[in-house]
Amino acid sequence: MSIDIQKIRKDFPILNQTVYGKPLAYFDNAATAHKPVQVINAIDEVYTKYNSNIHRGVHHLSNVCTQAFEDARIKVQQFVNAPNAHEIIFTRGTTEAINLIASSFGETFLKEGDEIIVSQLEHHSNIVPWQLLEKRKGITLKVIPINDDGELMLDRFEELLSDKTKLVSVAHISNALGTINPIKKIITTAHANNIPVMIDGAQAVQHVKVDVQELDCDFYVFSGHKLYGPTGIGAFYGKEKWLNQMEPYQGGGEMIQTVSFEGTTFNELPFKFEAGTPDYSGAVGLAAAIDYVNNLGLKNIAAYEHELHDYAMKKLSDIPNIQFYGTAKEKASVISFNVGNIHPFDMGTLLDKMGLAVRTGHHCAQPLMQRYNIPGTVRASFAVYNTKEEIDRLVEGVIKVSQLFG
Ligand code: PMP
């Protein structure tokens, strides 16, 4: 099956609008993707048909809502091929998932002098939670450097491993450069040294098929909103051997078995890590997004996005003084660039006036920008609903702005 772009675009009502009198062309998909009507309708149905607080309810609506929430968990389980549904924990997104793991894994397993390895191309949300642990626990963060193409230097990674290393935490795909990291190799190497690995899949689940059993990662985290799902919901997979030992993250309803002032016992997985009323409408929306992606086929989506990427790269490359960041061999459909000395913010603001939505700045990856010694980049990231005609407009827009700045 190939991609029927006109049919797909009809699923995304938000695309059908003008910005400053120009048709909207949205290239900010790595920040968040738009939602198809199938997702919007699924959330709508929760509130129009069966909204009710989940678990423990004896009445009909509560049971229907609980079932929908737990079905969504199974959907996520199948999506990443996790062995068990109770190894899938719902969170608000990638950021909360990493904070949960840092906090709970850190509380249970880390002591002063231990080391965590991340990489130079991480999003802040895979840096700062570990830095907070540096302060709280006296651990040290080690960083895998990248080469000029934006690829992890694996030989340096191996040098960083020691008996002090307690976890490796790296992105599957870089949000700022699009680099697809060799995570299977990283996991195999870390495991050969008995070190668990967490993968930040925020930029990956919408582009590549993730199989956590095949990867054998210990944790895999992602957000719903970049996967055509709603905001405020995400999930992570964790091997039950870790989750069972880890301290809870937040306390409250749902995560307990018994509470008394003499002492509290905790619920079993996955509920131990889901304190409070969860975002069940979000989970249902996320399940609808997974269905949407599955129906199109991730392989088809990826092939189409690669076509868009290569088309854009070919055309953009002709622009004088354009500098690309992230020229890895293995790359997702993200293009990060600057033209001459034009500040990315100026480029983005002027493109916006042409109806072209790009992201500019450091992309929550300031250490990466420091590596390239730049304040930021212009980033165009493609989704399944983008077209070559839109890319033509983007290229024309970049040329116009370049000429404007001489
Ligand atoms: N990691 C990466 C690689 C990301 O791209 C993002 C989102 N830009 C995050 C983590 C954080 O995701 P969220 O804001 O959905 O929690």
UniProtKB/TrEMBL annotation:
It comes from the Bacteria. It catalyses: (sulfur carrier)-H + L-cysteine = (sulfur carrier)-SH + L-alanine. Keywords: Pyridoxal phosphate, Transferase. The keyword rRNA-binding does not apply. Its cofactor is pyridoxal 5'-phosphate. Residues 26-394 form the Aminotransferase class V domain. Its EC number is 2.8.1.7. Belongs to the class-V pyridoxal-phosphate-dependent aminotransferase family. Csd subfamily. Catalyzes the removal of elemental sulfur and selenium atoms from L-cysteine, L-cystine, L-selenocysteine, and L-selenocystine to produce L-alanine. This is Cysteine desulfurase.
